[in-house]
Amino acid sequence: MKRITLSKLKPGMKSVITGLLAKGGIRRRLQDLGFVEGSHVDCVGISPLGNPTAYRISGTVIALRSEDASQILIQEVDTDV
Amino acid sequence: MSKNHSIVKNQSVTKLAVEKKSQDDKVIALAGNPNVGKSTVFNALTGLNQHTGNWPGKTVENAQGYYNYNNQNYVLVDLPGSYSLMARSAEEEVARDFICFGQPDAVIVVCDATCLMRNINLALQIIETGKRTILCVNLLDEAEQRQIKVDLDLLSERLGVPVVGTIARSNQGLNDLMESVQTTLQAPPPTNLIVYPDFVEKGIETLLPRIDSIVGNYLDARWVAARILDGDQNLFNSIEEYLDYELIEDPEIQRILKDYQFKLKDKQITQIELKDTMAKTFIQVASVLCHDVIEEPLIASDQRDRKLDKLFTSKLTGFPIMLIILLLIFWFTISGANVPSDLLAKVLFGFEDWLANAAISIGIPSLIIDLLIHGVFNVIAWVVSVMLPPMAIFFPLFTLLEDFGYLPRVAFNLDRFFQGCDACGKQALTMCMGFGCNAVGVTGSRIIDSPRERLIAIITNNFVPCNGRFPILISIISIFLVGSNSGFSKSFLGALILVLVIIFGVGMTLLVSKLLSKTVLKGIPSSFTLELPPYRKPQIGKVIVRSIFDRTLKVLGRAIIAAAPAGLIIWLLNNVQSGDTTLLYTITDFLNPFGKALGMDGVILVGFILGLPANEIVMPIIIMTYLARGGLLELEGAALGQLLIQNGWTLTTAISTLLFTLMHWPCSTTLLTIRKETQSWKWTIISFLVPSVAGIAITFLFNSLVRIFI
Asked: What's the burial of B357, exposed, middle or buried (CB within 10 Å: 0-12/13-18/19+)?
């Protein structure tokens, strides 16, 4: 499985978080929202102008700008269920 | 070296004091993530028995309500939504500060049953502070629709606090909730469930005695020790503010911390690893707690929401739908407000005549009649008839949209523009709030995490026209820009032009945001997260009641309070002689050259200047001044256009006034709110100057162009 950052995840794709690069206050906020190692995160949509992108995480949908999504390391997961 | 500074209670704590009706009232804080139906629970429990301050301020007094259960009175404090006690925004600070320093007797944590695990994270943090806690698992109906099941009893057993399931919108479970609050108040505080890994616990242990001796009477010492290890600077600031002690600077604490950090280094544990460990502990405990408690389908159950998102936020349909919605709202507002406006004017002005006659017949001096009835009452009648109908249509429509969950999608769609201006995407939300009232938009800017971006949002909020300015825009558009069309096509065209004006305002917001980011508020865009909550069917009946009471009447009341003295001033100015003319003439003549340079006249400028307390009164003042000068006494609905044309209005005047309405100084309420929110006169003055300068520059430029080309 490929290791990429969350910003590379395309709509409809699923992944598991493998690490966080974000620093400072946003790191804790992401963790509080469920972006911790081992959590599942799916890409559910992109805004009309291409940025930000919406992700499904612990039962909710959170939009992140690509700069922030690129601070989250993921491992892509097979989509065919 | 270690002075014994034990804090019992400090005066500054009263900053968060709530208004109890009697000494025995119990104070209950209502906390929770955003979008969990917290306000619905608040409204369901307190009904209309709420105490609302004039406008939201730094205290939490704006969101207090009362209820009685089993002969005990409760004060319920509705806190702003927050994801964590590790506050990132000013709004989350308010919530955290009230829970920690406001001495609530208990905290109700409202949770969304459809994403319980994330909500439990906050609940665990609150339980860790040692406060008596009740978990309210709301939105059980939505959970059921999505085939999500929650074992409330098991959860309660594991958490050690009462867990009550509710469907607040249909008043289900509220009695159980009130019962649980009552029993919780008699029970001992909950036991902490958060146990960190050994190396963290050791650190807490070494800090504990010192912290306990300083703040132990006031805060849970273990919790404070953990936050010190966590390095929550934001909390330290609040401890200093409320308890008047620089805890983190305490020499003994510093010494213990240094010691501990050495030990960590020996074990090769970095500061980030320490913090991560603490954050993860909460997530892990939440996940263990929720095991077997939540039963949900394997496939994500939010398909309907994602389909709606496709419609509202896709490349193809996102922006067109946004514009259509805006257009429809204004079309309904304009076409629906016409008839009731005329009717109200007839009734109120008829009443003015009746009142004057009645006053004459009982022998009240004519000076007083003129002053109070033809001065004060007249301008109030204008404000009510012009303001009330559009507001009574606009606010409910807007609230419906808000309740449906559309506004975060607007922020999602527009964020790219704000990125381009180095600003925050949530500014789109505060912009939307500004449509209702700029003061609300300014306060709403608390949702923006970065202080720099929050200031940008505050300073530029005035570029979206608030509800007090719509009537001016609407009348100018329908008199001068729509032309001789009639009926539906007229109101539709009017709405279309209004939408264009608003798009221009949004464009100015972006332009000025960009300018600010490049000059006085230089900086790089900070990280932010934007939740796209599930769409919810708005409760139409409740929305109408709430938007009329909470918004329409409040705004109208404020306008009337501002209008009364303005009516008095106009009347006095018009009746005080200055040389051989009235003072009003002198002033408007003096301002005339300035007005003319901007495509307007002295009277219009007087309207904007006297309209400082509330934009709602700008048009009535202009009308009254023209009437006073022209000696006209009666003014029928359609005659407004005639009056303006008689006084020299042309298409250029109309467009200039339109532009100036969109861009001039914020009203005094907004300015005072800005002062309160920024705690700085400097930023208040800048917020005054920025839209004023923009308005003057643009109307001047427009008129120069007109002179050159026409």
From this structure: exposed
d(CA B540, CA B545): 9
Contacts of A63 in chain B (CB under 8 A): 412, 415, 425, 529-532
Q: How far apart are CA B494 and CA B482, in angstroms?
A: 6
At residue B114, what are phi and psi to the nearest 5 degrees? -85, -15
B412/A62 touch (CB, cutoff 8 Å), yes or no: no
Whether A62 sits inside 8 A of B529 (CB atoms) is: yes
Which pair of tokens denotes residue B298?
């394997």
- Is the domain spanning B11-186 CATH 3.40.190.120? The answer is no
Looking at chain B, the number of H-run helices and the number of E-run strands are 30, 12
Q: How many CB atoms lie within 10 A of CB B557?
A: 11
The pLDDT of residue B4 = 47
CA-based nearest distance A73→chain B, Å: 15
pLDDT digits (tens, 9 = 90+) for B490-522: 888 889 999 999 999 999 999 999 999 999 999
Closest A-chain CA to B278: A28
> In this predicted complex, what is the ipTM?
0.95
A27: pLDDT strictly greater than 90: yes
Q: What is the DSSP letter of A10?
A: P
Q: What is the CATH number of domain A3-77?
A: 2.30.30.90
DSSP state string for B311-334: HHHSTTTHHHHHHHHHHHHHHHHH
Distance (Å, rounded) from C-alpha B274 to C-alpha B266? 14
Nearest-by-CA chain B residue for A33: B118
Question: In terms of CA atoms, which chain B residue is nearest residue A25?
Answer: B88
Q: Which residue has the tokens 């008699």?
A: B186
Which residues in chain B are contacts of A17 at CB distance < 8 A?
none
Q: Which residues pair with B50 in a beta bridge?
A: B65
pTM: 0.89
B86 and A68 within 8 Å at the Cβ level: the answer is: no
Amino acid at B622: I
Q: What is the DSSP letter of B600?
A: S
Domain residue spans of chain B: 11-186, 198-295, 319-709
Best residue in A49, A66, A71, A73 to probe B by mutation, most B CBs within 10 Å? A49
Give residues 120 to 139 of B whose Cβ lies within 8 Å of A.
Answer: 121
Tokens representing B272?
A: 């980030």
Query: What is the C-alpha separation between A53 and A11, in angstroms, rounded?
Result: 9
Pairing of strands B26-32, B72-78: parallel
Which among B122, B125, B283, B301 is the top mutation candidate for probing chain A, defined by the most A β-carbons within 10 Å of its own β-carbon?
Answer: B283
| DSSP 8-state symbol, B105 | S
Q: Which residues contact B301 (CB under 8 A, 6 or more apart)?
A: B114, B146, B147, B148
Query: B663: which residues sit within 8 A by CB, 6+ positions away?
Result: B462, B463, B505, B508, B691, B692, B694, B695, B698
Q: Tell me: the pLDDT tens digits for B76-99?
A: 999 988 999 999 888 899 899 999
Alpha helices in B217-270 (DSSP H): 221-230, 233-243, 251-266
Please report residues of A whose CB lies closer than 8 A to that of B116: 59
Buried b / exposed e across B100-138, counting CB within 10 Å, b at 16+? bbbbbbbbbbbbbbbbbbbbbbbbbbbbbbbbbbbbbbb
Provide the percentage of residues in chain B whose pLDDT is more than 90: 58
| Helical residues (DSSP H) of B362-485, grouped into ranges | 366-368, 378-404, 407-420, 427-436, 438-444, 451-460, 470-476
Q: Across the A/B interface, how many CB contacts are shorter than 8 Å?
A: 133
Convert B58-67 to b/e letters by CB count within 10 Å (16 or more is b).
bbbbbbbbbb
**Tens-digit pLDDT profile for residues B521-549:** 998 888 889 999 999 888 888 888 877 87
